[in-house]
Design brief:
Number of helices: 20
Shape: globular
Distance between the termini: 30 Å
Helix content: 25-40%
Strand content: 15-25%
Strand order of the largest sheet: 2-3-1-9-8-10
Number of strands: 17
């Protein structure tokens, strides 16, 4: 993960540097700030593609500048197509973006197969453009300074002290000429995918395999989070099959009752990965709470619980290995359904709920994963968020996706049934929430600690400080950090 920031008008370099320094962990390899003549663009680099100095951003082209936190899939073909008119100086995938803008303008965004957030300065128009991928896998925020100048950045903490109010940049939009324009609604369905279930599942298998395969391309070392559940196991199994060397997988669990560690181990043994288990205890969890809440900028109980394990496993990866890219299993639930869609009364209700979850995922699971991974100077890639794959699954007749089979995510499981990619006990087992997979004792230990920390009288007194979203349990008060 890299970090980007753009101040789109007269700016104090001191204020810019102060805000931008808050996310240096996203890109610890190098930092550069350029003055465009009408504002500032900044880039903290985590070198993933094009590791040489020539791959450092901002990229410039005859007075235009760009910073991008992203992965542009298929960039080699784009570069080949444009190489007759433009000279490329690096192996960075993002170097193709300014030439694309020269050729196609803002139409370029709907052409990209990418996870990205970018800020572009058009030297001819003397104006700024910003854009974000259709799912919102890469983060981007904006706000306005006291003079009304818009400022963009990777995280809200970059904008604190500059903008009074901070907003998430809408996924699938670009900003130009002072307004936001939707270039792609990832939930929109053109024509419904119908047919027999085997043909539909064949399309799922083909597209997910392609989504994993393209995300293996990296100049930096790649690793995989493996919880032992269906989603991460499928990603790892596909990657293992497509790789010429054993992949590196990582699992985390409590020292007492990490129910999924054994399943992750079984999967790792089956696919032949180089597997690492990170074992944590109650004290490690308690000591990480404050840092996790700070990273998330959230006190939501479910979010915090689900994030502690991911934060700690990524911390271990960063500190003990040379892996810099992590593939994860996010977004599967929103596409194929989970507990919130198991009881959908009809197909239309299932589809509407799936659309809602997908539109909001950029402020829930994807955001949580981004924060936990990027703070440890790693880059997250999300195969289930592959644009072709998402579009296909969203277009499948929702009557086929409903849980009428007695097994959640039946289509995804059936798509890989009989392939030998995973053993049946992994392919067909029900999932656990990430915090439960780490071990029930993690949540129990936190609740016990909160009960010991606050008496009933102290709890009642401290809750009075919060007229908005008042804590309702001692655990929820623990996460408020003040």
């Amino acid at each position: 993960m890299c970090s980007i920031m753009g101040y789109c008008g007269p700016a104090s370099i001191a204020a810019f540097k102060k805000g931008f320094s808050a996310t240096v962990s996203r890109g610890p390899d190098d930092t550069r700030i350029v003055d465009t003549g009408k504002g500032l663009l900044g880039f903290h680099r985590l070198a993933i593609m094009g590791l040489h100095p020539e791959g450092m951003q901002p990229f410039g082209l005859d007075g235009d500048y760009i910073v991008c936190n992203g992965e542009i899939y298929g960039f080699e073909e784009i570069r080949k197509r444009l190489s007759g008119k433009y000279v490329f100086k690096s192996d960075s995938d993002c170097e193709v973006l300014l030439p694309m803008y020269r050729e196609y303008g803002t139409d370029m965004f709907s052409m990209l197969d990418a996870e990205f957030a970018l800020i572009l300065y058009d030297g001819k128009k003397n104006d700024y453009i910003a854009a974000r991928d259709p799912i919102g896998i890469r983060p981007l925020y904006y706000g306005y300074d006291s003079a009304g100048t818009i400022v963009f950045a990777s995280e809200p903490k970059n904008l604190m002290g500059i903008a009074e109010k901070i907003f998430p940049f809408p996924p699938g939009h670009y900003y130009a000429d002072g307004r936001f324009v939707c270039y792609r609604d990832i939930t929109a369905v053109g024509s419904v995918v119908r047919g027999n279930i085997d043909d539909v599942c064949g399309g799922i298998r083909e597209r997910l395999t392609a989504g994993v395969k393209k995300r293996l391309v990296s100049d930096a070392k790649v690793g995989f989070l493996l919880s032992g559940g269906l989603d991460s196991s499928l990603v790892c199994a596909i990657a293992a099959k497509e790789s010429s060397v054993p992949i590196r997988t990582f699992a985390i669990g409590m020292d007492k009752d990490a129910i999924d560690l054994k399943y992750a181990r079984q999967t790792a043994e089956y696919i032949g990965s180089e597997h690492t288990e990170v074992i944590i205890d109650r004290e490690t969890v308690l000591h990480s709470i404050e840092r996790t809440v700070e990273i998330l900028a959230s006190y939501d109980i479910t979010t915090v619980r689900a994030s502690i394990g991911m934060y700690l496993v990524c911390k271990a990866i960063h500190e003990t290995t040379d892996v810099r890219v992590i593939l994860t299993g996010e977004i599967s639930d929103e596409l194929f359904g989970y507990k919130y869609t198991d009881f959908a009364p009809d197909a239309d209700s299932f589809q509407r709920e799936s659309e809602k979850r997908l539109r909001e995922i950029n402020v829930y699971d994807v955001l949580r994963a981004d924060r936990c991974i990027s703070v440890n100077s790693l880059e997250a890639r999300v195969p289930f968020g592959d644009l072709d794959f998402v579009s296909y699954v969203m277009a499948i007749d929702p009557a086929l996706k409903m849980n009428v089979y007695g097994k959640g995510k039946y289509l995804l499981r059936h798509a890989f049934e009989g392939t030998g990619l995973l053993p049946d006990n992994i392919l067909w087992r029900e999932k656990a929430a990430f915090s439960d997979a780490v071990g029930h004792s993690m949540a129990d230990g936190i609740k016990e600690y909160a009960e010991e920390l606050y008496s009933d009288a102290e709890f009642a007194e401290k809750c009075e400080k919060y007229p908005y979203s008042r804590p309702f349990t001692k655990e929820s008060l623990l996460y408020r950090l003040r």
